[in-house]
């Protein structure tokens, strides 16, 4: 029997497992293949939906389902913390001492925010990249009646356009709440423009300028001065705030960091087309865990899982498995509470945002609601 072991039960791991369950159904039914997912969480969280919680547009329970409910029944699900992968013996080990031999292993362990990298942030500021953080920010916004709002970004982070979305949604929210004239908004970004990609940065620049949002570039956060309520950059700039929202830098999983394969931040060196771990032919990496020069976003996991599932099934059936991933990404971008744009790009073709509109906003909301179908690997 061939064994495929997937470490991680998030979006990337679930999509891949479900595609394999569907596309290799004859082999699984015949006892020739077993697909195993090792998950350290029992609930699947639709992370892009966290953006909507501060605005009371989503509730946490709408974004969560049991992992066992979203996985195909033919997939073996193991709850536990994967702690080691032995590439020589081809075994994944969990913290409970369970050993899972594999013919093919897939690392889909995602990424997570590191707010502790910015001293004072958790005491005086807010994040919306966790359920608890988004709810805490929701409570702060409920009582906010105007003042200085600072939105600051650390790199790298997943859902790359989310800070832009939050800023434009907040500006629209303040306007609709009738407190925009009493609200000063500053957006801080560590690069020379408000987004890494030029076309998206230009769109954001236009939108921010038209809405009176001030932009601070080359702003690398050092700490939050909790007494003075100021955000401090490494070059000494200090920006006062009444409400601080920070997107902290992210790192790869603890599993990745301790694997012996990742860089210091936990990103796994991954072939940009074949998705195999560097120097390995039977270990693959998808989703946020890779070091690929593309967005850490759900659509990336979607497109990567398509390619990898097809290649694994082909190899299991004796073929070469030679389909290539070309860096395909698709992202919606909310530009307010009722308008949005989108970008589609790959390694060779840069993004080109379309004109924001209400139909695109509704398309994004529909896509959010279709996530649970999307996870099944049938779209």
Automatic annotation (TrEMBL):
Gene3D superfamilies: FAD/NAD(P)-binding domain. It comes from the Bacteria. Residues 3-291 form the FAD/NAD(P)-binding domain. Signal peptide: none annotated. InterPro entries: FAD/NAD-bd_sf, FAD/NAD-binding_dom, SQRD. GO terms for molecular function: oxidoreductase activity. This is FAD-dependent pyridine nucleotide-disulfide oxidoreductase. The lineage of its organism: Bacteria, Bacillati, Bacillota, Bacilli, Bacillales.
């Amino acid at each position: 029997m061939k064994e495929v072991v997937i470490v991680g039960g998030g979006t990337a791991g679930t999509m891949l497992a479900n595609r394999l369950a569907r596309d290799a159904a004859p082999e699984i039914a015949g006892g020739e293949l077993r697909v195993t997912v090792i998950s350290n969480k029992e609930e699947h969280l639709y992370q892009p939906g966290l953006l909507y919680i501060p605005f009371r547009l989503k509730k946490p329970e709408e974004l969560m389902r049991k992992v066992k409910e979203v996985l195909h029944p033919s997939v073996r699900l193991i709850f536990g913390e994967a702690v080691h992968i032995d590439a020589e013996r081809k075994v994944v080990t969990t913290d409970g001492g369970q050993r899972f031999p594999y013919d093919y292993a897939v690392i889909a362990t995602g990424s997570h925010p590191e707010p502790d990298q910015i001293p004072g942030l958790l005491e005086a500021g807010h994040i919306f990249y966790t359920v608890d953080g988004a709810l805490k920010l929701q409570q702060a916004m409920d009582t906010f009646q105007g003042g200085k709002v600072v939105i600051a970004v650390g790199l790298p982070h997943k859902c790359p356009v989310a800070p832009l979305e939050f800023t434009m949604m907040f500006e629209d929210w303040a306007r609709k709440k009738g407190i925009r004239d009493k609200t000063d908004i500053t957006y801080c970004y560590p690069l020379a423009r408000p987004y890494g990609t030029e076309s998206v940065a230009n769109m954001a620049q236009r939108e921010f300028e038209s809405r009176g949002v001030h932009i601070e570039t080359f702003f690398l956060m050092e700490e939050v001065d909790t007494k003075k309520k100021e955000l401090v950059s490494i070059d000494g700039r200090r920006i006062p705030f009444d409400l601080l929202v920070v997107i902290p830098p992210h790192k790869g999983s603890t599993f990745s960091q301790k694997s012996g394969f990742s860089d210091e931040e936990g990103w796994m060196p991954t072939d940009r087309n074949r998705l195999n771990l560097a120097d390995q032919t039977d270990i693959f990496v998808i989703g946020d865990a890779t070091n690929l020069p593309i967005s850490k976003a759900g659509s990336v996991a979607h497109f990567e899982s398509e390619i990898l599932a097809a290649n694994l099934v082909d190899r299991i059936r004796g073929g070469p498995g030679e389909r290539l991933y070309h860096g395909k990404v698709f992202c919606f971008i909310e530009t307010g509470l009722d308008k949005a744009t989108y970008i589609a790009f790959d390694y060779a073709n840069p993004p080109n945002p379309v004109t924001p509109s209400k139909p695109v906003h509704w398309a994004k909301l529909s896509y959010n609601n279709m996530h649970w179908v999307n996870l099944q690997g049938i779209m």
